[in-house]
Amino acid sequence: MSSRQTAYCKNYFSQQILKFCVDVVITMTEEGRILMASPSIESAWGWNTEEISGKNIYELLTEASRKPCLHCISECVVSGNSAVCELVVKRKDQSCSLFELILHQLEDSCEGSQFIGIFRDKSERFRLQDQQTEYLERLKLTRRELKRKEFELKSALNMVEQANQVKNEFLSNMSHEIRTPMTAIIGYSEVLKESVIQAEQHDLIETIQRNGDHLLQVINDILDISKIELGQCELKTEACFPLQIVQEVIALHRPKAVQKGLRLLTNIHESIPETIQSDPIRLKQVLNNLVSNAVKFTNNGFVRIEIRTFNRSNFERLLQFNVADTGIGISKDNLKRIFDPFTQADSSMSRPYSGTGLGLTLSQKLVQLLGGKLSVQSTVNQGSIFSVTLNAGNKTSEIQQSGRRLDLDNQKTLSLTSTDARRGGNSTAEKGRVLLVDDTQEIRTLFSYMLAKMQLEVVTASNGREAIEKIQQAEGQGELYDLILMDMQMPVMDGYEATRFLRSQNNPIPVIAITAHTLITDREKCIAAGCSDYLGKPVKFNVLSEMVSRYLTALPELQNTTETASSR
To answer: Which spans of this chain does the record mark as coiled coil (predicted)?
Structure first.
């Protein structure tokens, strides 16, 4: 390649570089006169290459940038090296932007000192830096806001926990204050009923018992709902028998249905599971609520319980209890809020049906805890159908019922469970010596009567300290107690402290806590203190008899253990 071709190529490449260069490149004299500029000057400053040629660079700078430019040229001449400065350039439209000038002195220039200057736009860089700074500031603000929200959330959670604790303590105290007198009311009416002969007095006592049981049910419903809301509702999943539960529910409500002239029916479909895994007590509680409502709101016709199964998939089988009635029904508007607490279909002042409206709310919450669904269909003046749908599993045995329908209007007896059979008649408890500890005289008298009816020897104490003294005195005389019934909230020394003391002395006597505190935490507290078992007041005779019998069946073994501990 010839020297001319080489020079042409170099010149061509230089022009192409300048053409695609983003920065503004100019050549100028020592005085600042612009000799040539790159094409990029048009998009950057608004001048084309012809217009800018011959202009003085100082004309294109703000007044404040002229002195730094002069200093940059002088620095480049004196040092013989490149010089750098920042200048504010005025565009053709008189707008301004910040540029960085990198100035080089050309060697072997034809006409005096000449320079090549590269102007690099710094406004975009600053804009990006500003954006980054703004982003970092927003990030800092966001982090501070998150920390503030986290602090507020923790504070709110602490307040909720404190409120729940206060609510828990309030419910526990209210349970104690209400259940203690209810124990006396229900218990003594039961005792009194055994001694009266006149039918009129018998009816009066039954009225007291019926209203006492109703009040106790209201208290239980309120506490159960509160337990669920606090996450303290205890479920005991075990094998339960759907048909047996239905039979027991019907037996309970049959007298009221007969009194109102209603037919109480069952409809068992061709195949139902013999057993399902659920909580039988809670399931029975739900069905009791539904049948009770059906009987209450039905004045003529029937109440029917239907049990059927259906498959939702190849792996999931559902069991459904339908409680249907021919009662007053529920309007569409009231159906929307029928499961709300303290809500009834008829909320007028003159409504003829009493109740708190807690039963359906509690039933829905319990069914949800059981992993099922409670739904309702109703038509005003035609009746309602409440459906409880539960998972029945896929490996259950079946009872073939052939679609039979049972009319229980004339059915006088139903088969009793083994538990019911054990509870029949008088006491089944074995003879033994029991220490009864309670600070209320009326409760001591009532339970003493029940225990004496079980043919047990009863000694009483009014607080934990007195109980410990009597236990120590009995051990010294060789007359040991076989069982202790311990109230937990007493003056001087409560049941918790007394039980802990007995266990610290390796005393193995069974201690049954009988307390009006009925939350799960109360039960756990009793067991943690060393109690062998737990009963919530009020306690009916058959329940107390079964509990006492359970612990006294191992009486000889307990006596040997106690005598060994005493000899130590």
So the answer is: 136-166
Give the pLDDT confidence of 353-371 residue by residue, as tens digits: 555 557 788 889 899 989 9
Question: Taking the mean position of all CA atoms in its chain, how far away is CA 503?
Answer: 36
β-strands 317-325, 383-391 pairing: antiparallel
Pairing of strands 483-486, 511-515: parallel
Residue 527, pLDDT score: 93
Q: Please check the confidence at residue 230 and state whether its pLDDT lies above 50.
A: yes
Q: Judge contact between 279 and 241, C-beta under 8 A.
A: no
Average per-residue pLDDT for the chain: 81
**Collapsing DSSP states into helix, strand and coil, what is residue 84?**
strand
The pLDDT of residue 134 is above 50: yes
Beta-strand pair 34-37/96-105: unpaired
Tokens read off for 70: 């002069």
**pLDDT greater at residue 557 or residue 504:** 504
Q: Which long-range contacts (CB under 8 A, 24 or more apart) does 98-102 make?
A: 98/122, 98/123, 98/126, 99/24, 101/69, 101/72
Parallel/antiparallel/unpaired status of strands 276-278 and 34-37: unpaired
Q: Dihedral sign for Cα 365, 370, 371, 377, please.
A: negative
> Is 500 a residue whose pLDDT tops 90?
yes
For residue 562, which amino acid is it? T
Q: What tokens does 130 get?
A: 């500003």
**Cα–Cα distance between 155 and 143 in angstroms, integer?**
18
Q: Are 24 and 119 in contact (CB under 8 A)?
A: yes
Minimum mean pLDDT among 283-292, 473-482, 558-567: which range? 558-567
Residue 465 pLDDT exceeds 80: yes
**CA-based nearest residue to 565, from 507, 510, 511, 509:** 507
Domains and CATH numbers, the chain: 3-121 (3.30.450.20), 143-229 (1.10.287), 238-415 (3.30.565.10), 433-567 (3.40.50.2300)
Burial-class residue 215 by CB neighbours within 10 Å (0-12, 13-18, 19+).
middle
3-state secondary structure of 77: helix
Which residue spans within 365-466 are E strands per DSSP? 373-379, 383-391, 398-400, 405-407, 433-437, 457-461
Predicted structure pTM score: 0.52
pLDDT at 519 over 80: no
Determine whether 326 is exposed, middle or buried from the number of CB atoms within 10 Å of its CB (0-12, 13-18, 19+): buried
